[in-house]
């Protein structure tokens, strides 16, 4: 927390109360004092900045445990620490069950008291930070942040609405770059499991002999290299969502174990004899033809039915060209912040080029095109000449002015342009081209380009 924490000291012994208050003030805390539980409740009702209440367990009138219960009813986020004598430790332990943060026995060392309260203040700050970050994630990935008003996107929104109001499994299908993970995050962060973790895994990026261990965990010594226990990603996603990207790249044998986990809601780590219950919502995605994979016996049909309780098909960008102006505006706002620029818009000519382009890389490619214009351009309005040559040279569907190159020539030219625009930065060049860095490295090697 940014401000100094406030401690309310509740103690009927004036000397003890004054001593504790002085100690906390010397350590930089804001301090309030109350001689009784009744006065403490009035103080808590009067102000909203109290973080920790330090109260005696035994006091005339209302005792510390009753005060604790009232505080948790009035201000559940306020932490309570009880001071007790050795003969009342059992009562203090009982108070922990009612929500007390900790207790300390009299007579206590001042360092012990400061350490106890300091630890609680630190944990409270961490809880506030987690809450703030979760709120930011919910704002960033909420349902209405997905851009597009086209008819085909309206159908997507209806499915997202159904998915976020349920705990059913979801299968998201669509070409690369269409925004499948964004849809998955909208379902999670705007849905019933928003307070739980969102755990993504790209099934294509994990070695086939390790993916089972990654998902379900393992016991130490279960296989060569298992030097310590691993809980696995299913367990990490407990109470939240596990996002299985590129699900069709999952090994066939692992698919059977995934199916059982979905059906039984239990998992067993590799090398473990015990099963553990889980509470995980699974969202999967793919850019491949699911039905073909089923016919080719590379994807289990029964797993498909289990995953596709709700199926969402995200359309390619070429099928929703009317959404391109809004997407461009969004990316301009994003890159104005990234590049510390003030680009106010895009020229009609440049927007026409973007609207007519086929966008095989979909929204990701469009984002890269706008970033390219920011990287090479200097004007306050994106001009046609600031777009990639492969965009500006193509009239789009129905045009006749295309200057043909071989695919190899075109790829090399694009690679050189991207590397030049990115000033040799491979990560940025990959983003401009809408590809992964490993693929960029292969292209550089294939065309024998120097760094």
TrEMBL record:
| Entry keyword annotation includes Membrane | no
Task: Show the Gene3D superfamilies listed in the entry.
Answer: 1.10.8.60, 3.40.50.2300, Homeodomain-like, P-loop containing nucleotide triphosphate hydrolases
Keyword Transcription regulation tagged? yes
Q: Which residues form the Response regulatory domain?
A: 6-121
Q: Residue limits of the Sigma-54 factor interaction domain? A: 146-375
A Gene Ontology MF term for this entry?
A: ATP binding
Q: Which SMART domains match?
A: AAA, REC
- Cite a single Pfam family from the UniProt record: AAA_lid_14
Q: Which UniProt keywords apply?
A: ATP-binding, Nucleotide-binding, Phosphoprotein, Transcription, Transcription regulation
The alphabetized list of GO BP terms reads: phosphorelay signal transduction system; regulation of DNA-templated transcription
UniProt protein name: Sigma-54-dependent Fis family transcriptional regulator
State the organism of origin: marine sediment metagenome
Query: What lineage, starting at the top, does this entry show?
Result: unclassified sequences, metagenomes, ecological metagenomes
């Amino acid at each position: 927390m940014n401000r100094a924490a406030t401690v309310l000291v509740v103690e009927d012994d004036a000397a003890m109360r004054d001593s504790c208050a002085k100690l906390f003030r010397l350590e930089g805390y804001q301090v309030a004092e109350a001689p009784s539980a009744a006065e403490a409740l009035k103080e808590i009702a009067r102000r909203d900045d109290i973080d920790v209440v330090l109260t005696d367990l035994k006091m005339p009138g209302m005792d510390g445990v009753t005060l604790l219960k009232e505080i948790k009813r009035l201000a559940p986020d306020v932490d309570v620490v009880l001071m007790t004598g050795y003969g009342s430790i059992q009562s203090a332990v009982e108070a922990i069950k009612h929500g007390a943060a900790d207790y300390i026995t009299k007579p206590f060392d001042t360092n012990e008291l400061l350490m106890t309260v300091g630890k609680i203040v630190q944990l409270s700050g961490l809880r506030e930070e987690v809450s703030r970050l979760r709120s930011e994630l919910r704002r960033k990935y909420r349902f209405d942040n997905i851009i597009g008003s086209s008819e085909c996107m309206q159908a997507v929104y209806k499915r997202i609405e159904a998915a976020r109001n349920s705990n059913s499994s979801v299968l998201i299908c669509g070409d690369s770059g269409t925004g499948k993970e964004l849809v998955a995050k909208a379902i999670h962060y705007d849905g019933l499991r928003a307070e739980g973790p969102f755990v993504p895994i790209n099934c294509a990026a994990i070695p086939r002999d390790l993916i089972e261990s990654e998902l379900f965990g393992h016991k130490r010594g279960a296989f060569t290299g298992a030097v310590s226990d691993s809980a696995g990603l299913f367990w990490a996603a407990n109470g939240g969502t596990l996002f299985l990207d590129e699900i069709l790249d999952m090994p066939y044998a692992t698919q059977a174990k995934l199916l059982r986990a979905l059906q039984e809601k239990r998992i067993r780590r590799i090398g473990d004899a015990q099963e553990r219950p889980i509470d995980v919502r699974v969202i999967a995605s793919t850019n491949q033809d699911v039905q073909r994979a089923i016919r080719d016996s590379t994807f289990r049909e029964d797993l498909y039915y289990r995953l596709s309780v709700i199926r969402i098909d995200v359309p390619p960008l070429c099928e929703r060209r009317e959404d391109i102006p809004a997407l461009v505006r969004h990316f301009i706002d994003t890159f104005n912040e990234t590049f510390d620029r003030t680009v106010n818009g895009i020229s009609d000519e440049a927007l026409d080029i973007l609207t007519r382009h086929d966008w095989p890389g979909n929204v990701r490619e469009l984002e890269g095109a706008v970033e390219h214009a920011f990287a090479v351009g200097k004007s306050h309005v994106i001009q046609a000449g600031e777009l990639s040559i492969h965009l500006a040279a193509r009239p789009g569907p129905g045009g006749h002015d295309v200057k043909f190159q071989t695919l190899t020539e075109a790829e090399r030219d694009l690679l050189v342009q991207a590397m030049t625009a990115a000033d040799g930065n491979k990560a940025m060049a990959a983003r401009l081209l809408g590809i992964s860095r490993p693929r960029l490295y292969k292209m550089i090697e294939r065309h024998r380009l120097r760094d």
